[in-house]
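An example makes the point: we let one protein speak, the chain in one-letter code, the fold tokenised, and here it is:
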Amino acid sequence: MRTPDSLTAAAILPLVGGPANVLSVAHCMTRLRLGLRDRSLVDEEGLRALPAVLGLVADGGAYQIVLGPGTVARVTPEFEALLTTTADRLALRGAELKADRSRRNATPLKLLLRRIADIFVPLIPALIGCGVVAGLNGLLINLGLLTGLTPALTAIASGFMALIAVFVGYNTAKEFGGTPILGGAVASVVVYAGVAKVTVLGVTLAPGQGGVLGALAAAVLGTYVEKWCRRRVPPTLDVLLTPTVTVLLTGLVTLYALMYVAGELSSAIGTAADWLLSTTGAFAGLVLGALFLPLVMLGLHQALIPIHTTLIEQQGYTVLLPVLAMAGAGQVGAALAVYVRLRHDTSLRTTIRSALPAGLLGVGEPLIYGVSLPLGRPFLTACAGGAAGGAFIGFFSMLGDQVGSTAIGPSGWALFPLLSGNRGLALTAAIYAGGLLTGYVVGFAATYLFGLGGVTPARRAEQAAEQTTEQTTVQDLS
């Protein structure tokens, strides 16, 4: 018996041009990402008509079909199963896909941001899991409960973060075309305890100095050294000399240069984030909260992961994530206003009911692509709600009350177990809850009063078509 997920996969496949048009398949938390040979074969109208499809994104890279959290993880393997007969073709065309993306997707900045996202996105499940355990452990320690268990929880929560540099190095080498295990090997130098015996310019190194940024730089350098060796070392000696030269040369540069530079940069990021929120908190929160939804829409929010990770390594939490999470609150408020105002639009209200739980947990894409973006103005009023919530949290940062998250990934209500700060968990949670409430209220009010003037179901369909055309034009120009 076929499941709803297998039926969805079977329905999507012909609408994207069939198996012959699919070059690669992947997914993130909410989107099915397809590498396609010819996008003109995609039937976007047919895709949008599928009940499970919440939106489409064509950003010059992978063609993205928004299915929502949970659903995408179940549909993707079903979709891949339909392509098993073409597995060899997918592997052979992987290089062709990368070349095609590089040719059509243009700017170096976009390519760099996508590569950074591809390096760090696979780490998010572990970051979430360890972050939740760390939050639970902190709560038990503060309450003085289960004192015999908390050391074990500390080890579980901290183990991954202590070795995250190795995973970053592995993924970096894989993304840049090197041998992944060599990337992990050169990155492991950063966290090895023995570096405390190494002195550079009279300064003793510290294990972990430079963090994920140092690991990233080391793995990139190692990949280029490896490629250089592959081109010059005789084949008979390649298996011996190439890995040796890669590890030795990259390791020395990492120890005597990269760790120091990356350490200074990491410290600067932490100092800048603290200064930004403590000095210009309300204004900074307003700007960050307003801009985050557009970043999510473009898929560029993943590029912030290294900054969050660096702050977590340094301070134990990232102060930026709770501010950025307010964008999701504005989105929820806007969606509720649409639900109330367009009470006769059964299709739209059904979409909101299905996407709202994910929105409350901080996954904004279903509401963005299924509700606010097709309508146009509600997307802007949702940004206004995010700005208000961000300003609320930023204001308290100016008063010295920091609100942070011990992990990245979830936001909305799902962020409560991960909250941490400098003034106690109760106050931290209260400030974060106040920010969410502010985002909900302002997003709702702005959308109810200004975001839906003259919108009817017929006009909404026209706006959706116009929005798709405008988005494609902007992407082509960019």
Remarks:
- The radius of gyration is 24 Å.
- Residues 85-99, 466-478 have pLDDT under 50 and may be disordered.
- The first helix runs from residue 4 to 15.
